Amino acid sequence: MYLGHAHSASGFSRPVALKVLQPHLRGDARFERMLIGEATWGGKLYHDGLVPTYELGLHEGSYFVCMEYVPGFTLAELASRITIPQTMAHFIIAKIALALHYVHTYANDEGTCLGLVHRDVTPSNVIVSRAGHVKLVDFGIAKATSQSSETQGNLLKGTYAYMSPEQIDGDTLTAQSDIFSLGTLFYELLTGTRAFDGESVHETMRRVRDSEWSWPDARPDTASVRIVEQCLQRDCRQRYESARDVYQALLPLHHLFSVFQIADIWPTEPCP
Question: In whole angstroms, what is the distance from residue 240 CA to residue 75 CA?
């Protein structure tokens, strides 16, 4: 990812983010399709909780994606810098849930819901901006369940610890799969540890497949516990029916949070 500037004929300039494939992946049709797929969905989806795509281009034989530049940290970076308070965790997860609900209910021009699933809801794919915006990024492996799609197999980029059991097993994914991943994020923000980390990749996969996890001795508030536990049900039919339901469950919790608590992370000079 690079920081660039887009210039207009009138001299107007704005910062943009440029995403390109790493040199050893350029020319690989599989990864090029994933980059093109990310640009395609980024150009179609418009929501405050998503990063829009401005352009898909080809330069000297290599594809690039030009996107909105969001100054801030990924959720992974933010969690490594500070201890995230529970009220901030409620706010962040609620914002991601809103974005996921939009993605899951996105319809084409004919009004047909495509059943889009993100498939890679991880801390590295969530950006928290200086202004307190929370944005979900990276649709490189997103798929519409109403469309035919190839099996991603070992192309899956999602960290195993954040996948759903059905994703580990290679089964059909639905909105509930992203909700499971959202639950793993919530657990991590509340406890500071991953729910399914094992001593090896295979052990992590087994724990995810069995939804084998536990709370630390110091549990978060009861309402948060209930939300995480419903998100992380092994049977997807027992999870929340929609990301909207996750958001509604969080409403009594995150309304106490102010975005200024996020903005204060970045020190700035006071305005004169």
Answer: 23
57 three-class SS: strand
pLDDT digits (tens, 9 = 90+) for 46-81: 899 998 888 888 777 788 888 889 888 899 998 888
Residues assigned a catalytic role:
120
| Residue closest to 31 by CA, chosen among 20, 42, 40 | 20
108 token code pair: 């084409």
Q: Is 47 in contact with 102 (CB distance < 8 Å)?
A: yes
What is the third-level CATH fold of 72-261?
Answer: Transferase(Phosphotransferase); domain 1 (1.10.510)
Q: What is the pTM for the complete model shown?
A: 0.86
DSSP 221: -
The structural architecture, per CATH, of the domain 2-68 is 2-Layer Sandwich (3.30)
Delimit the domains of the chain by residue range: 2-68, 72-261
